[in-house]
């Protein structure tokens, strides 16, 4: 019978290797090649060949007594997999917020002494801000940057502005270092045309091991009605805080 058009082309050797990995994973103390061959229905030479390949690639480790156990690559994949799950949850929250508010959504963090924008969700109806100045150099002029810096100690903020002296980006940009260093942590931070004329931004802190923030950007002429953004932004930031704490992956997105 001819193969159906919708039927996928499967690589038998890959399937067999995965079956061996599954079999080893079910046995905390590992298993011999003979046992694994029997349990997976493979011929012993085939099992040996696949096991040697899996050991070589780091997915299995052969113990001195001849048993096979899971290797370091499996642990690395497990860690990376948890990170992908976290990233998926983060993007789901951001996408829902983008759709409900009609605004571009940003997730930022302060990592290794710099402001980073880790994720952006936007669309044609609500495009992201044109990044005409790198956010690392413009923390003083963006709600994202100011919210992240507010999560640092006073000395850390002073150090940041020593490395990145604030510059005038628009007539509304606050550049007085004393005011920026002494700024208090707030539930919400607003940037009204400080980074880019015609654009406003709101940011809310997200709980984590390092400063994290969720922010939205929108036309500045809508800033008089920012109350429509406040509760949804707070709620989304709280949801992300819970997700990151539960997953233990605040630094993985």
List the helices and strands and how they pair.
Layout: H1 12-25, H2 33-40, H3 44-56, E1 60-62, E2 68-70, H4 72-101, E3 104-111, E4 114-121, H5 143-150, H6 154-163, H7 177-181, E5 189-192, E6 199-206, E7 212-219, H8 227-247
Antiparallel strand pairs: 1-2, 3-4, 3-7, 5-6, 6-7
Mean pLDDT: 88
Strand line-up of the largest beta sheet: 4-3-7-6-5
Helix content: 40-55%
Shape-level CATH architecture of the largest domain: 2-Layer Sandwich
Explain this structure to me?
The chain is of the alpha+beta class. The protein folds into 2 domains: 12-70, Arc Repressor Mutant, subunit A, CATH 1.10.10; 83-247, 2-Layer Sandwich (Beta-Lactamase), CATH 3.30.450.40. Helix content is 43%, strand content 17%. It has 8 helices and 7 strands. It has helices at residues 12-25, 33-40, 44-56, 72-101, 143-150, 154-163, 177-181, 227-247, and strands spanning 60-62, 68-70, 104-111, 114-121, 189-192, 199-206, 212-219. The strands form 2 sheets. It has a 5-stranded antiparallel β-sheet with strand order 4-3-7-6-5. Strands 1-2 form a two-stranded antiparallel sheet. Helix 1 (12-25) crosses helix 2, helix 1 (12-25) packs across helix 3 and helix 4 runs antiparallel to helix 8. The radius of gyration is 26 Å and the shape is elongated. The two termini are 47 Å apart. The mean pLDDT is 88.
């Amino acid at each position: 019978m001819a193969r159906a058009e919708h039927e996928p082309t499967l690589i038998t050797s890959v399937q067999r290797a995965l079956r061996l990995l599954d079999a080893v994973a079910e046995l905390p103390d590992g298993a011999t090649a003979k046992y694994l061959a029997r349990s997976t229905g493979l011929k012993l030479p085939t099992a040996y060949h696949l096991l040697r390949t899996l050991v070589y690639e780091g997915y299995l480790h052969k113990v001195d007594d001849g048993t096979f156990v899971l290797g370091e690559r499996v642990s690395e994949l497990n860690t990376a997999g948890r990170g992908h799950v976290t990233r998926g949850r983060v993007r789901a929250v951001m996408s829902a917020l983008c759709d409900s508010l009609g605004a571009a959504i940003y997730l930022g963090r302060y990592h290794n002494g710099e402001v980073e924008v880790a994720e952006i969700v936007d669309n044609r109806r609500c495009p992201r801000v044109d990044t005409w100045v790198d956010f690392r150099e413009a923390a003083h002029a963006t709600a994202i940057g100011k919210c992240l810096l507010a999560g640092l100690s006073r000395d850390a903020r002073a150090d940041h502005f020593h490395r990145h002296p604030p510059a005038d980006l628009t007539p509304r940009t606050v550049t007085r270092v004393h005011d920026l260093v002494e700024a208090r942590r707030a539930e919400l931070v607003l940037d009204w045309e400080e980074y880019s004329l015609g654009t406003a931004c709101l940011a809310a802190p997200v709980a984590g091991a390092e400063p994290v923030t969720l922010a939205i950007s929108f036309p500045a002429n809508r800033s008089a009605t920012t109350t429509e953004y406040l509760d949804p932004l707070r709620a989304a930031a709280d949801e992300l805080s819970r997700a990151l704490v539960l997953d233990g992956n605040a630094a993985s997105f």
